[in-house]
Design a protein that fits this description.
Rossmann fold; about 500 residues; six-stranded mixed beta sheet; alpha/beta; globular; 17 helices
């Protein structure tokens, strides 16, 4: 069977970096093709070229034996090419029906016929196997529901090529199964599907074939997954063998450094108390809705706590605002890195220095640019942040390097307690390993670390102790050496009646 979609010698260069270097491979109709590589390997750039958001410097895209040139995503969508991105492209303030039917609004005499709009939207929602109200605003939907709307929009354009970019990073197990069922159904309809994921188990579970990119170059295309295993895939991705992907390093623990007593507020169903010693990494595990992120936000002052106290070095701190919390040596790495962690339109240097620059002002008034450049260069070097320069816009970096910049921001402050909410979300296996090493180094320096992750093997691989949450409260705590997946999951799962 011939390839329905072909990339032929695709090259794309940005100022200071060659993102793609003569990429060539093909994808067949009725197949799911995995696309893997470290952050910065070129996967997203390739999808942007396919979507019409970028134009290649050289090379071409061939669809059904015809060369295609897309000047924008609208042209690509009209030609049957859709990209389902990790970050939603929907309009939050518009309804489900309005978002779903964009470009297909039923009209009469130049006016939208809303009754017909709702009816058609309901039909499309039903085809997706969903039952949410078409009149609800998108901002009130879950991430999984928003993803279904994106898929529904694509199907309305009779799409034959669909690419999924990290679609499961914020989904529950039930939602992932539902998404996989839809993807397999699209395969049965003879769509050519590109599936991008850092979760390698998903690549093996879902894909028929797989292409590996590294540093903008095509490394391998495996036409059959039977010829591939996890060890080979990781080695091809990162260019080296990683025996233990968590690389846990024992570290000395001291006295209690951080304590939370009876904290309570939105997202919790009961008062929560715990403590972390200096040099200790405490993992927090729970299913979606368990209250882990909500707990960290209450501690950080991002959401006002109704009750409870927070102590650092036995000193009660005022956690009514993030500013107070930061000044008392606590920082937060938020789960939503793009929306809440970085300032995308600013440089790497500015993102590193944004918090600590108040301590470097000249005459308490003027920015000390030379000192900021010095700090930025130090952490770019120390954390091995891959960027053409300190002046590069942070939005142009890979997810793993963006996360390193956020870590650098707090390392430039006097911080003793690190609250990390899904710090490796959407990051490839090589970058994850580097983040783990930074976390272990922080522990060796005597910091207290709260590490939230939805991936149970990761929590078990990184943490010294694991706190389990369910339905907005703590339901158990297990030491690293005693932890088993069955034990932790049995506590995390809802109690059957």
């Amino acid at each position: 069977m011939n390839d329905y979609l072909k990339f032929e010698n695709i090259t794309k260069t940005f100022p200071g970096v060659k993102a793609l270097d003569s990429i060539s491979f093909g994808i067949k109709s009725g197949s799911i093709h995995g696309l893997v590589g470290e952050n910065g390997a070129g996967k997203s750039t390739l999808l942007h070229i396919l979507s019409g958001a970028y134009s290649p410097n050289t090379g071409k895209i061939v669809i059904d034996n015809n060369e295609k040139k897309f000047n924008n995503p609208s042209e690509a969508l009209n030609a049957g090419v859709a990209i389902i991105y990790q970050e939603s492209n929907l309009v939050p303030e518009m309804t489900v029906a309005e978002n779903l039917m964009i470009g297909h609004y039923p009209q009469k005499n130049g006016f939208i016929v809303y009754k017909e709009l709702i009816t058609k939207a309901e039909e499309q929602i039903k085809l997706l196997g969903e039952d949410f109200n078409p009149n609800v605003k998108v901002k009130d939907l879950s991430i999984a529901q928003r993803q279904m709307i994106e898929i529904g929009k694509a199907l309305l354009h009779n799409t034959r090529i669909i690419a999924f970019d990290e679609p499961t990073s914020s989904l529950s197990e039930r939602e992932i199964k539902r998404l996989f069922a839809i993807i397999r159904n699209l395969k049965e309809q003879q769509c050519a599907i590109i599936y991008v994921s850092h979760r390698l188990e998903e690549i093996f579970d879902l894909c028929d074939s797989c292409t590996i990119l590294r540093d903008g170059k095509h490394i391998n295309t495996f036409e059959c997954m039977n010829n591939l295993n996890n060890e080979i895939l990781v080695k091809k991705m990162v260019g080296r063998k990683i025996k233990d992907k968590y690389g846990y390093e024992p570290h000395e623990k001291g006295e209690t450094l951080f304590k939370v007593k009876d904290i309570y507020g939105p997202g919790l169903s009961d008062k929560v108390s715990f403590e972390i010693n200096s040099g200790e990494i405490v993992g927090f595990f729970g299913l979606v809705g368990a209250g882990r992120s909500e707990l960290l936000r209450l501690i950080y002052g991002d959401v006002k706590a109704e009750e409870g106290v927070v102590l650092v070095n036995n000193k009660t701190i005022n956690n009514s605002t993030p500013k107070n919390v930061i000044e008392n040596g606590i920082c937060l790495l938020p789960e939503e890195r793009i929306d809440e962690g970085i300032i995308g339109v600013r440089s790497v240097s500015e993102n590193i220095n944004i918090s600590s620059r108040r301590n470097m002002l000249i005459a308490n008034l003027f920015l000390n640019e030379k000192e900021e450049e010095k700090v930025a260069d130090k952490f770019i070097d120390d954390l091995k942040i891959r960027t053409p320069s300190r002046e590069q816009l942070i939005r142009n970096l890979s997810g793993g390097n963006q996360q390193k910049v956020i870590l650098a921001r707090w390392l430039s402050e006097k911080v003793d307690v690190f609250l990390m909410d899904e710090p490796t979300k959407g990051i490839d296996v090589g970058a994850k390993f580097e983040i783990y090493k930074i976390i272990y180094q922080l522990a060796n320096e005597g910091k207290a670390i709260a590490f939230v992750s939805s991936e149970l093997p990761e929590v078990m691989g990184v943490a010294d102790r694991i706190i389990i949450m369910r339905s907005g409260k703590i339901v158990g705590c297990v030491k690293r050496e005693e932890a088993t997946e069955e034990q932790i999951l049995s506590m995390a799962l809802p109690v059957s009646r």
